[in-house]
Amino acid sequence: MRRKLRVAAYAVCVRDGQILLARSPAPDGTPEWVLPGGGMEHGEDPYDTVHRELMEETGYRIEVTGLLGVDSSRHVLRRRPLRPLTDHHGVRIIYEGRVTGGELRYEVNGSTDLAAWQDLEAVPGLARVRLVDIALRLWRERPAEGRVVPGADGAG
Hints:
Largest sheet: 7 strands, mixed
Order of helices and strands: EEEEHEEEH
Number of strands: 7
């Protein structure tokens, strides 16, 4: 079985009761909301990753205002038929950010197709990835150890 480690950095940007999210197609093609951010390039610092990814996916420049935590997930996947299984381990570094400049725009030829501010109260009704819930729990609870216990409240 093939093993793959992916380290990524994301930002929770909240203002006026809204969170900044990006939309990405799920494996089945259905659109779902994700946190803006993404994978680190070799040799890149995660702090630089979150700045680059936010600009690419949303058009915004941000100031990182804190480190909320780290999330780790592991899944066995088969990306394409007749390909070997992959043991995928994702490590996601989650920052808090504040928009300091730029203009909201959509990513072109990237992993997302839309960026938008969503009301915090509306998030539970959105088609979204699990990381959105984990990141919001980190943002709300600010646990000293920088992680949430998966499934403790059904949101992670």
